[in-house]
């Protein structure tokens, strides 16, 4: 038997919604909730519905909330034998998923869709530069499960608190080749990230770039690397969020 449905909002709120969830979603239960500082939660889900599912590192799962809202998270590990998956959620402070993360409890039942395609990290050659922010730390850790592992991968993250993100990265085992840049007003910090990036690409022009996280930062870096002569084929962009927009689902181009 499942434990009682949790509060606040992973609970389907009506008959139609419940039917929808049962038809298209998989059921899972929260097995572990580990606060990593105030800003992150390492969440482990388990469920028979997740057993024997295919997972490619970089895939997302979409957790269902009341009102048929889905929110995307990136497993940093997925074990199809036991139907167990772990992701790192950023408690950014607004929104149903962020609020849920802050209060998630062991034993809670939820509905989710996926794993489904968002970013195919298995297909990315080395050397690789991976850019993102707090929402991308789990994706960075998922690179470990690719055939190339962490070999020749450099990470660059724009973050609110370098200290909080460093602690989270250490917890999920992403420690070498990491540069953390603290956000500044009017995105001035991106000047530094952009010049470091273009310098690295001039030194190794065959490098593959993966840009994740905030949509406007990705756009800016994409333009910069294209100006630096990097071909569009070498760059994969997947926006994870954009100010003022709810529930991004991820676009790969
Ligand atoms: C493919 C994919 C994979 C993702 N993987 C992860 C992951 O592994 N871990 C993770 O933490 N997130 C991940 N995200 C991002 C996450 O889905 C979004 O941050 C999502 O908006 C959170 O939902 P919410 O209900 O808290 O906020 P929403 O209701 O979606 O948004 C409410 C408000 O908060 C703003 N907002 C959303 N995210 C942030 C943020 N990071 N900082 C500041 N403001 C924000 C929105 O712009 C909006 O104004 C992923 C997104 C995609 C598309």
From TrEMBL:
InterPro entries: FAD-bd_FR_type, FNR_nucleotide-bd, Riboflavin_synthase-like_b-brl, SIP_FAD-bd, SIP_fam. It comes from the Bacteria. Residues 23-122 form the FAD-binding FR-type domain. Pfam families: FAD_binding_9. One of its GO terms (molecular function) is oxidoreductase activity. This is FAD-binding FR-type domain-containing protein.
